[in-house]
Amino acid sequence: MLKDRGGEHPFGDAGQLIGWLIFLAVWIADSFFLHKSTFLAAKVPLAARLAFLFAAVAGAVQLVRKSHIYITHGTRTERVLDEGAFRWVRHPLYLAGILAFLGLAASTASLYALAVWALLAMFYAYISGYEERFLEDRFGDAYREYKARTGKWIPRPGRGRR
Fold it and tell me: Would residue 84 count as lying in a domain?
């Protein structure tokens, strides 16, 4: 059984903060000053890149809006949370971060930022796996049933809450 630290990975918050800072530093440096890996920007129209950014950020905002109201610091639910955005994906707040950073990387076509984004996505996959093991230990079959009907990152149409 995993130690109860509120269900979160012990390095989750610090890792996210460090990852965000690294991503933003690389994205800003490459996109606006160095231009070492942004050569694809000349081949993809700015309007398309900005449309993708807008869609990614809008999706991220909706995920945060539809999930953050169910999460309060210091208060943990005594059941499997399957309301709001949790009805469709198991990690909506992590997915929001993944989408927002993908939108930023795509908006300037920075391959360096995209590489850091991929590392961040792997980190999110790692900490979400840790949290899922914790939740399986805590809620047992109820969480396993939730996992079976709810996508980790991609919604499973027609399989919402029962």
Answer: yes
Mean pLDDT, 10 residues at a time, the chain of 162 residues? 63 94 98 97 97 98 88 66 91 96 98 98 96 94 95 82 52
In terms of DSSP H, where are the helices of the chain? Answer: 12-28, 46-68, 92-108, 111-139, 141-149
Lookup: tokens for 32: 């606006």
Cα–Cα distances (Å) from 108 to 41, 60, 61, 89, in that order, read: 6, 18, 20, 28
| CA–CA gap between residue 140 and residue 83 (Å, rounded) | 19
Supply the pTM of this predicted model.
0.89
Number of independent structural domains in the chain: 1
Residue 106 covered by a domain: yes
Residue 24: both structure tokens together: 């933003």
